[in-house]
Fold:
Amino acid sequence: SYAESDGSRSGTAVGRGRLSADAGALEDFQVLFRQAPKLSQGQHFGSRLVFDGKGHLFISLGENNQRPTAQDLDKLQGKVVRLAPDGSVPPDNPFVGKAGARPEIWSYGHRNPQGMALNPWTGALWEHEHGPRGGDEINLVQGGKNYGWPLATYGINYSGQPIPEAKGETLAGMEPPLYWWARSPAISGMAFYDADRFPAWRRSLFIGALADQDLIRLTLDGDRVVAEERLLGERKARIRDVRQGPDGYVYVLTDASPGELLRLAPAQTGG
Structure:
């Protein structure tokens, strides 16, 4: 996924290609999806990609800093969309056949999603997004549901004033967040941990933090967050993405110059 410009405004696009034999280029690249309309002036693209193993591709889309569009079903801003891997729309998407609604939409009312992953022990789709000043949140994403932005939020405007459209922290008919932060860490990247290498980390959720320059570990009990831990200590870095490696270590990408790929283990293991 990438930001694509039409000369004046930009939007998220998603394409597919094959890695060449020498791993030096993408071959037969084709664009499968374009966010419409293009509204961004360089903000809130939000895109993360998740395959569910059942023939669907989920794409998270920011609202391009155009707050009301997250509630507009005729626009693809502030949405999670669900497609087939060839870019076609599955016939059982919740808004297929509904007048005035884009059939690609799976859920709506999102602000700027910066992490998305399938929970490997439940199969549920989890997503997190930046709030404004405060109100970063984690959501359990379900088809057809409204996640509130900008009508329901725990955050305020960067000016210190309320969000103009906001009517409360939670509203009837809108999904409350599973977990949220009163002061925004600027969360980015999301990975569930289910490897055997480090039993103390099993069934944890790892989330990077850009503003707080840390890696957050959330301990889960079912769909509840029961504890939060910060892991980097003095080794501060803006974390852009986090993944569980096939070797059972946790890998993070820093958002810096020069960027780094870090391999992490629990402190007591000496990693």
Observations:
- The mean pLDDT is 95.
- DSSP finds no helices and 18 strands in the chain.
- The radius of gyration is 19 Å.
